[in-house]
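pasting for the record
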Amino acid sequence: MSAPPSPPLTHHQILALVAPFTRSGRTVDLAASDRLARTLRFRPRTIEVVDGLAADTAERIGPLTETLQLECHASGSHRLAMWMVLHDVPIALLALSFTLQELARFELPPLPRRLRQAPWRQGGAAGSA
């Protein structure tokens, strides 16, 4: 015997779930979301990868597109997936699982800060002074 289906997300639940993301400038895409499947999608964000990088490198890298999807389980366990795309090529996927209490404290740092702190950025590029 299978478990009964989870109820669809209410508007109040959606507002509570997306609050940590809207604080950091992300916008939920209600048309792309599925309340019955309890999946929320956010509008893709284009992020210029110029801050913290040398001008010649920034030109070659170009903008990244970030897409988020939040799967909201009735059990209180949630899953966030983040895709990063560069020139139509997926370059990163991050998947996190967490509870509603953890979600309330959730914040993603702005992308340029994450790039400057990446291990490959420490110590300078090969051949640099």
